[in-house]
Amino acid sequence: MSLKTTLTPxxxxxxxxxxxxxxxxxxxxxxxDESHKVAVIPGVILGKDAHAFVQVLNGTDGTTAYxxxxxxxxxxxxxxxxxxxxxxxxxxxxxLLDIERPEGQIxxxxxxxxxxxxxxxxVSPGIxxxxxxxxxxxxxxxxxxFDHSLQGTLTLNGKMMNFDGGRGYIEKDWGQAFPSAxxxxxxxxxxxxxxxxxASVAIIxxxxxxxxGFIVGLWINGKxxxxxxxxxxxxxxxxxxxxxxxxxxxxxxxxxxxxxxxVEGGLLRGPTRMDMGQRVLETLNATVQxxxxxxxxxxIFEGIGAHxxxxxxxxxxxxxxx
Length: 322
What we know:
2 helices
């Protein structure tokens, strides 16, 4: 862990790391007419089968592809957020994809408008807060852009998709492995309102024990409302049903009620301490109802987020019991 990488969450954190280690960047793309939605996830895994990869989720039909590359085909800029995997380039201004294989094809270039990242300060470098400074955590998280514009086209398995005027979102994870249980969801499609919800709750190993940690950011017209373990916010209730997730949080000033509707999705691969063998079910077709209230009375925001990314995974009884 270095000062530079901690204060620049988008950068590659794996220089000089030993296994177990993984790092992945998550680009979500939704076209202007909302008929196309794709998640592109470049990354690396260090372990018994060290390699680079590019995962692709077609959010419309749930089909996925996992493209592997030799680890030597992965290159990262040591001073900024920029990486290359074979002929594929990823940074904060564009995606350039050129993959044509039996397991799938994706080609094209998407230009990204100005990013809107979770604010980074020395005391609280991004979404992790002061936890970002804690060494050897199981999994770190970063939000590189709540919402930005898209320009360009992709061809996915022979189908051309135009993303001119579309909306994008970028986050990332790195560390040793994914948690033993978690819920995650995200949407930046709230009708005409520039807004984004990103929310996660997970089992966090800590000094020989574990606790239920959570991080939620509601970004509305450039203003960020934070609810996190490290900020003193509390979970008032968390319920997981076959059809939906219902979650109520409260800070010293606000109450946030979230209801995410569960639908079928596609299978992605996630990191364990050994390999990318974990199967992760993700959809881009969920919805999330968001209601933010001032504790002194008064509604601040209410809306339904479309094209919601949603994962509900792992030892859920333990997650609910913590």
